[in-house]
Design brief:
Elements lengths: L2 E7 L5 E3 L6 H6 L5 E5 L4 E10 L2 E7 L6 H54 L10 H14 L1 H28 L7 E5 H9 L3 H6 L3 E4 L5 E5 H18 L5 E9 L2 E11 L17 H5 L8 H11 L3 E6 L7 E3 L2 E15 L2
Parallel strand pairs: 7-9
Antiparallel strand pairs: 1-2, 1-5, 3-4, 4-5, 6-8, 8-13, 9-10, 10-13, 11-13, 12-13
Helix pairs in contact: 2-4, 3-4, 4-7, 5-7, 7-9
């Protein structure tokens, strides 16, 4: 190794280095900023130095400037500028990764709690304390026979949560572990309906109806990327759509692209934030006012997932004043999210 470095910021427990672990002793005992030593690890003469800089401590050792203190100080000067910048970039990447892990953990814990609550709503927790497994199975069977509809709804709830869990893992593997997309031809209408059906009760609870157009076209995409994108779009819709309104979903084909349009009367997206909503960490102005602001990860994740499939998402707002509604003191507009994907043509 020609030149090795070690840098540790004052407010950080971690540092950046290209030195092997065996060099840690030299780093620990070095007390001067410029000296020549006989290195046992590399079995050669090297020049080393430890210096304190604004953001922390920096150690350098090299076999290139043995006879010149001046050249070594020049190396120190260059790395003194470079290493703090690299360390700051590392810290930002670490913080971003930790935020993604916190988000996934929070969402998975929430979904798990919702699944357990759904089960206990159908069968109270204390009723699981049957004397043996056969008695428990018979008890559940009687419950199903008495109220089969409730258990059918329970299954749909559990399927929805399972799909949401799968979405979380898909987003993580595609965006953070660089798992390559597997593009194949799929009927886009079928993917949409499989996802939409799992949100049926959520929309029904707030009086929202669907109008879904027909579509026979196929798209060349990664299934998990597109299903996860639909999940995020519909999850946002359940939070921000106007109660007792209609969600319109239509399909159009132009040349080699298919557009899936989600048109809804939902919380107003102010003109100055039309692009910001696709930026990670941004929460909308009006959702913040009613305590429904998320972590600003849904639409940015959709944008990244679609990009893996050569797709994109755009926002259109109905400009006419007739489209503007005030409900319980909150402003609503007709917002249209367009997902544009490459068509599959035999």
């Amino acid at each position: 190794m020609k030149t090795g470095y070690w840098f540790k910021a004052s407010k950080d427990d971690f540092g950046i280095t290209n030195l092997p672990e065996n060099c840690s002793n030299c780093i620990r005992i070095c007390e001067t900023d410029n000296e020549v030593i006989e290195c046992l690890h590399f079995a050669e003469t090297r020049r080393r130095g430890m210096s304190t800089i604004a953001r922390g401590k920096m150690y350098i050792c090299t076999n290139e400037a043995i006879a010149s203190k001046r050249l070594f100080r020049e190396q120190q000067a260059v790395l003194r500028e470079l290493l703090p910048m690299l360390d700051q970039h590392r810290s930002q990447l670490t913080a971003s990764f930790q935020e993604s892990i916190r988000r996934i953990a929070h969402n998975l814990i929430t979904l798990n709690a919702e699944s357990i609550q759904a089960i206990y709503s159908a069968i109270p927790q204390e009723e699981f304390s049957q004397p043996d497994r056969n008695s428990l199975i018979e008890h559940i069977t009687r419950k199903v026979q008495i109220d089969p509809k409730s258990f059918a709804l329970l299954i749909l709830d559990l399927i929805k949560n399972e799909r949401l869990v799968k979405t979380e893992f898909s987003v993580y593997s595609k965006l953070y572990e660089n798992e390559p997309p597997e593009k194949r031809p799929y009927n886009i209408h079928k993917i949409l309906m499989l996802v939409l059906n799992t949100f049926w009760d959520d929309f029904n609870d707030i009086g929202v109806n669907f109008r879904v157009g027909n579509c026979i076209y196929k798209v060349n995409v990664d299934y998990e990327c597109i299903a996860a994108s639909f999940v995020h779009i519909l999850q946002n819709a359940t939070k921000y759509i106007l109660p007792n309104s209609v969600l319109n979903i239509s399909f159009t084909k132009h040349s080699s692209r298919i557009t899936i349009s989600f048109s809804m009367t939902s919380l107003r997206i102010e003109p100055e934030e039309e692009q910001s909503i696709f930026s990670e960490g941004y929460s909308g102005i009006n959702p913040q006012k009613i305590g429904k602001a998320g972590r600003g990860l849904g639409l940015p994740s959709v944008k990244k997932l679609l990009a893996l499939c050569d797709g994109q998402i755009t926002l259109r707002r109905e400009q006419s004043t007739a489209a503007r509604i005030n409900h319980l003191g909150l402003p609503y507009d007709i917002n249209i999210f367009d997902i544009i994907l490459p068509a599959y043509d035999n």
